[in-house]
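Box S2. Input/output pair 1.
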Amino acid sequence: MSRQRIFIVAEIGINHNGNYEYAKKLIKIAKEAGCDAVKFQKRTIDKVYTKAELDKYRESPWGTTNRQQKEGLEFGEKEYGVINAYCKMLEIPWLASAWDLGSQEFLKQYDLKYNKISSPMLTHIKLLEVVAQEGKYTFISTGMSTMEEIQRAVEVFNSYSCPFELMHCNSQYPMPPELANLNCIKTLRDTFKCKVGYSGHEVGLITSVAAVVLGATSIERHITLNRSMYGSDQGSSIEPQGLRKLVEYIREVEASFGSGSKIITEAEEQGKAKLRREYDY
């Protein structure tokens, strides 16, 4: 039985550095590479972070506090309006992981096809309930989570009959390949009887391709214009050439899966006619 096409998500996240022109460049790169969707992140800064955290010293292009850095990276209605229009023009879906209830409400205005639960939000039960009530296909990342926590999230989505796909993930940035634990893809699939993708934070491409071989139904990787740019996620991201290679490798691997039935190809039949015979030696 042939497998479904792997759904490839290019995670732009906050790698746009608060500049929607950078975001547009990354969207175009993802589209041209053959990705199936691009993803962003949405936060209400004062809800997600405490005042004490926001007041901490942090040098960035926007100032010297955490608040200035967080606000500098955050897109609002103007920027997401540009993103929404640009994605429609290029005919590539976009989605975003909301980090709070207000952000999920904000995203509803764009009538997106997909939702995303980020690993840190997997235990935010109220957010899970709000997302599940929308009934949209939802990707659920499982980094930093126990099986019991994942079970609770699955129960929420099942209770609302909301279609979902778990994504195996290690939330370390960057993640050493030896910590990928890709065999957990099968564990999650067997335990929760659902599709399981892979959200990777490693440097390089091999681990993500291996995840496809092991049954991942979707792949999500952060992308960047240049890994040397400012930002905490840039170093764990793929540059344009790497993204093109990743998509190429994934499509080549999935094309190699076949039906699973043992068949003899036409070329093999020709070789068989030459090489098979009644043996008397």
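Box S3. Input/output pair 2.
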Amino acid sequence: MHFNEMPFEDAIPVEGYGPGMFRIAGQVHQGAVLLCGAKVVPWGGYTDRDSLLELKGQIDFIIIGTGPDMTHLPKEFREVFEAAEIGLEPMATPTAARTYNVLASEGRRVAVALLPV
């Protein structure tokens, strides 16, 4: 899947995705990824909480792409972020990528953690 081009100043968009991969800033990334501003790094999934907790104060909330379908976040995962007062918005990965692109193009303080489809 490819997305329409949108203006980005301080962030990089998700340009596309496919089975097990994402295209971001012209590069293919295998597996789960975390995007925040101009930074893209591998993400270890629900057990990798530290990389998301480090974003506190830099973002208003984190969009979580839960894979091909929207699923509930694991209770233990969700509770860690509730205690840290970091908002999470789970949605299917395709929807999460599109939502992140729109919000990032508007200059919003948002990050996205995406599990592959």
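Caption for Box S3: The domain at 14-114 is CATH 3.40.1230.10 (Hypothetical Protein Mth938; Chain: A,). The mean pLDDT is 94.
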